[in-house]
Every structure is written in structure tokens, then in C-alpha cells.
Amino acid sequence: xxxxxxxxxxxxxxxxxxxxxxxxxxxxxxxxxxxxxxxxxxxxxxxxxxxxxxxxxxxxxxxxxxxxxxxxxxxxxxxxxxxxxxxxxxxxxxxxxxxxxxxxxxxxxxxxxxxxxxxxxxxxxxxxxxxxxxxxxxxxxxxxxxxxxxxxxxxxxxxxxxxxxxxxxxxxxxxxxxxxxxxxxxxxxx
Length: 190
Fold this sequence. Notes:
Layout: E1 9-12, H1 22-29, E2 40-43, E3 52-55, H2 64-67, H3 95-99, E4 106-108, E5 113-115, H4 121-124, H5 131-135, E6 141-144, H6 146-152, E7 156-164, E8 167-178
Parallel strand pairs: 1-8
Antiparallel strand pairs: 1-6, 2-3, 4-5, 7-8
């Protein structure tokens, strides 16, 4: 029985990431990932700052990774979850890797397969939280309702619409931004 709750959303607060990699380790423990993390903690400028950035699939409303897949291996389900490439269909062409505006999908070389976060679908479809959100000690990753998040972060607001040149991308995952923060949008033609 599917108990996926549409009122539950994923929130990422990049200012709170402490680079502990707990999310990566928990993700790798998820049995559907084959012991590989589908979330990644990257260093912004490793030699000059300890700042890290969490990279997770944004689950776009109109996923370009799925649109550019010639084998129709990537699909978005009725809950807005964009799944990893189906192993029996993926031809390892890397179109999805190159097309994603967030740089999320990764081609796993030994398997010749694209893999990425699927929002712990095996857990979220059963009413549980994604593995990464259960272990994050700083609260950089949260899975719950907007109301819960607004109580926890009254000075921040969730953003899930992004501009890449003239392209607007709306996502299921929210990035927390300080209230009053301005986002600079630069068109590619400028």
C-alpha cells in the first residue's frame, strides 16, 4: 500500500551544511542504491574555505534528464519523483548527465548506468523520511511540511523556481534562502 504524502516536501538549507558526509553514508546504506550514495557533499573551494555544498536531485517538474534520454530510461512518477535510469533501458549515453542544469545525475562507470537521488522512494512511499534527512545533524536536510519548516526557520523562505538563462525550472525540492535575499538572474544573451 502506497502512503506517499504529497504535503511532505524536501528542504535543503545550504547555509547549514557542515560537511560531515553523514547524508552520503546513510544514502549508501539504502538497499536500493547498491551501496552507492545518491547525494553528494562537494567542497566549494577546498583550499581556501571549509564551506561545502550538498548536491541532491531537485526532482524538476519538467525533468530535462528524462526529455533528453533516447532510451526513455528516466521517468517521473505521479508523485513528482524523478527516478534513476531503469537498468534494462539505460544505454549509458550521458545525455542526462550533460543536460541537467543542477549537475546531478552521475554515470556510474562500472555499471554503465546513470544513477541519482530518487527521494528514497522505497521509504517515502511508505510514509518514512529519506535516509539523508534522518541523519543530518545540522538540519541542512529536512523532509516535512512547509508549516513545519516555517516554524523551524522563520527567517528563511523556501525557493523552488530557478532561472538558467532564459529557462525557468520549477522543482519539487526547495532551497532555503534568507528572507529578503535577492537572486541575481543573468540571461545568456547579456
